[in-house]
Specification:
Chain lengths: 240, 49
């Protein structure tokens, strides 16, 4: 299917109840249709109207084979909510894992939620409103320091992570219990303000829980943000 | 999920710490490598194929 760039389309995503369980994505303005079999059980049963640009459609089309392959290998019913949870972050970096989004999160968190570290996890709608407001108010030059690194993992590890209901918890446990972090963990556990460091491999990392100097501030299936504050260094604050 | 991300934010970087930023970044990458190794090992141990 060929699309014109920088133009908007209206798509009807219709999950039929036919025996073939087909999903039809139709672009009324072009009259073209894409039919995906064996997918309807994984999607809402009522027709829905979406307004999407080319990026959105590309994303939808890329995701469909992934979802369809999952449906082909296991029952769709239990996958329904889980798939959407895994691929759509409901955390603070909804716009994506980037240095820029982390800097905006930190600016928002430290200016608006200094008194209540758990306030960031309130409803997503109010969160989006706050994000827009902060983006209007915060000068890009005044954003806090932020960095972001990423590393590819093997398909086996990826598959193993996906098998957990909350991969972010698994990642947080792995981070705190890794050999690379061991020296820092030992040093920090000696500090007077350090939280409990024992049994970290079993921790559920619930919001508000403290681990060494870090407090869990944001938790979603794919995302976890822990914040810390050091009075001894002139009230220095950070997020990981 | 094909990539694991790890990031850090700091409300302000003290003047004396500015030269240490490259060192911090290398350390952060080292920690990320440790995290990934831990995940790979756990996946291997669990028998994920």
């Amino acid at each position: 299917m060929r699309l014109r760039s920088s133009s908007f389309f209206v798509f009807v995503i219709l999950a039929t109840s036919s025996p073939a369980h087909q999903l039809t994505i139709a672009a009324p303005c072009t009259g073209k249709q894409i039919v995906f079999p064996s997918l309807a059980l994984c999607l809402p049963t009522r027709p829905r109207l979406f307004c999407a640009n080319q990026t959105h459609l590309t994303y939808i089309v890329k995701m469909v084979p992934t979802i369809a392959s999952r449906c082909a290998t296991s029952p769709c019913q239990p996958i329904n909510a889980a798939i959407r949870r895994r691929y759509v972050s409901s955390g603070a970096l909804g716009g994506g894992f980037s240095k820029h989004n982390l800097a905006f999160f930190a600016a928002r968190h430290w200016t608006k939620h200094a008194d209540d570290p758990t306030a960031v996890s309130s409803s997503q709608q109010s969160e989006r409103r706050r994000r827009r407001r902060i983006q209007d108010e915060v000068d890009e030059d005044e954003l806090p320091y932020a960095d972001m690194f990423h590393q590819q993992i093997s398909p086996n590890a990826s598959k193993w992570l996906r098998s957990h209901p909350s991969p972010s918890v698994v990642l947080a446990r792995a981070f705190f219990s890794s050999d690379a972090f061991a020296p820092e963990r030992t040093i920090l556990s000696l500090g007077p303000n350090s939280g409990p460091s024992q049994a970290m491999s079993d921790s559920s990392f619930n919001i508000g829980e403290t681990h060494l100097l870090w407090t869990v501030t944001v938790k979603s299936p794919l995302e976890m943000i822990l914040t810390w504050e050091l009075e001894s260094l002139g009230r220095l604050k950070g997020a990981t | 999920m094909r990539r694991v991300y790890q990031g850090n934010a700091l409300d302000r970087v003290p003047q004396w710490a500015v030269p240490l930023i490259p060192l911090h970044e290398r350390y952060a990458e080292y920690l990320l490598q440790g995290l990934v190794s831990e995940i790979e090992f756990a996946a291997l141990k669990s028998g994920a194929t």
